[in-house]
Amino acid sequence: MRILVTNDDGFDAPGLAVLREIALSFTPDVWVVAPEVDQSGAAHSLSLRDPLRMKQWEERLYAVRGTPADCVIMGIRLVLKNEKPDLILSGVNRGSNLAEDITYSGTVAGAIEGTLMGVRSIAFSQASAFGRPGGPIWDTAKQHGPKVIERLLALPWGDGVFMNVNFPDREADAVEGIEVTRQGLRSHERLHIDQRSDTWQQPYYWLAYQFRHAEPPDGTDLNAVHNGRISVTPLSVDLTAHSVLAAFAAKF
Ligand code: MN
What we know:
Structural class: alpha/beta
Largest sheet: 9 strands, mixed
Number of strands: 11
Number of helices: 7
Strand content: 25-35%
Radius of gyration: 19 Å
Distance between the termini: 48 Å
Bound molecules: manganese (II) ion
C-alpha cells in the first residue's frame, strides 16, 4: 500500500507530521508533497500564472511553492512518476473544516484533487478553540485517525466520493465516538469587515468572523464536533443539484 500525504498549512506544520505518522502506521511507503507556505483558504485553486518550484526536504518529503491541488498533481505526476498511490490523506488541518468551510478549505481541496485523479482521498481537520493555549490537541487526531481510516477503507465509496473527517476539540479519551454526518450550514451574518487604519491614516480591512454559540441541527458535521464526536462526512465532486435537475428537466 502506498499513501500520498498533503495539507494546506504547509510542509512544516505539526498537523502534517501527525498525518504522516498516521499513514506510517499502515505502510512504510508514505510520500509527502505539501505547500511551501500556508495555503489555508486557497480552496481548489491551481497555480496557472506562476511556475511551480519544488524542494526535497527529507527522504520522501517535498515542499512545492503552490496550492494543495498543485501538490497532489506534482506528487502523482512527478514525484511518484504516475504510479498512483492507493490513498491520499490531506491534513491534519489546524482547526476544523465544517459546513461552508469545506468550499474555502485547501485541506479539503487536496482530497478533491486526489479524487479527480482517481485515488481514494480523505481530508482531516483537528477542531481547536480560538486561542487555545498550546494549540490544537493533536494527540486526538493521532490516537483516533488510524481507526477512522481502517473503517472507511473497509467500505465501498462509489465514484467521485471523498471523505471529510473532523476531530473534536477534546482529549483523545474524552471523544464520544464517530458519527457519519451531512454538511451543515452556519449563518453568513457572522462574516463582517473589520476596518482599521494604517500609519498613513489609510483604511485597510480584515475579513472577520463573529463566533457564536448556537446548537447546530442534529446529523450535521457541526453538531457532531460540537458534541465531542468525530465527524465523517461523505462528499461528492459532482456539485449538481440532482433534485432540481430532475424538476427542471421536465420543464425545459
Ligand atoms: Mn489550513
